[in-house]
Amino acid sequence: MIDLEIPKKFVPLVKQAGSMADEVFRPVSRKYDLAEHEYPRELDLVSALIDGMSDSGAGNGAGASGSTRAAEDEEKPSQSAKKGGNKNGANMSSALSIMETCRGDVGLTLSIPRQGLGNAAIAAVANDEQKERYGNRWAAMAITEPDTGSDSGNIRTTATKDGDEYVLNGEKIFVTSGERAELVVVWATLDKSLGKKAIKSFVVERSNPGLKLVRLEHKLGIRASDTAAFVLDDCRVPASDLLGDPEIRTEGGFGGAMQTFDNTRPLVASMAVGLTRACLDFTRAALEKAGHGQDWDAPIAAQSYASARLVQMEADYEAALLLTLRAAWMADNGKPNSMEASMAKSKAGRTCVDVALSCIELVGVDGYAETELLEKWARDSKILDIFEGTQQIQLLVVARRLLGLTSGQLK
Length: 411
Fold this sequence. Notes:
This protein is α+β, with helices and mostly antiparallel strands. It has helices at about 10-35, 40-55, 80, 90-100, 105-110, 115-125, 130-135, 255-290, 305-330, 340-365, 365-370, 375-380, 390-405, and strands at about 140, 160, 165-175, 185-190, 200-205, 210-215, 225-240, 240-245.
């Protein structure tokens, strides 16, 4: 069973992440929202703190680079489950800490060095030698292409074996932290005719001359985070930089590459949960200041619309929170969590957008003007319902799992 209290060993980590949100991120949040593409120098100190906590063990493995699956085979119960135990590991600590930092600023959270989504991809599928070699380097993740959005199985970037190297050719867009990262995890196909079964991920050095930066995007939200577009032009990478199994397994399909999403989708859901909490806290305080405080003893029908709506949003928040914690807990305990990760991402992303916009309606001008951060949070919220798989894709994944259908049977 999941214990719904924060594990005692994570309490210091969560408190530190909360302090970071309040004392570091929020004071500079508007500054870097306006100064798009300018690197937030304050994050150097933050990343040094995270590295120090990781080295000492105080961070309990929190962070994208630590979010890997339990060592047990996913087809079998974990050892802790066999013993009736309960493991709270790196995935849970990462989810809890990200919720706190995103209560401060999502874009700044995404910009913390060495904590990119590419780091989670490496943690998910790299072998021990690769994890040691990539060490504590900052990795972005490049999946999306101009004609291939949420359908990752239709990737057109190619990887052709040439001796001890692979030659990558194609185009990637919407690469979070693509300019700033040291490494880019690029998804490419070994054989277009085999569809998603031939999709593999490769670690490419950002300095590789075949990886050419085309532009940085100007965005609606998360403007503190750089978002890059690349062209891969005869980009040569060592064969040892292919993550996971180099063989095309027709029976295993997309598994190795897609396992990345089982790790990263709960993290993105955590971002949405944290931002939702920020919006609700701000709105509750604003309503109380205006004399519309919550009366917990009165029935919903007897309360003002603003108070009743706030209760509804709190309920949605709790549902998103619990789904997110379950997906992270399952990963920590070696349980297949593909459906649960998509459920969490779907519910948390949609809830975040709905809550942010509803909060603006409730507080009026204070929500729409740049005098408060709620306006910014509403803009930031939308990406959390899009990247790492759109709302529609998440629901499709859930439907396939519930009905026992393949992607070919249910599109």
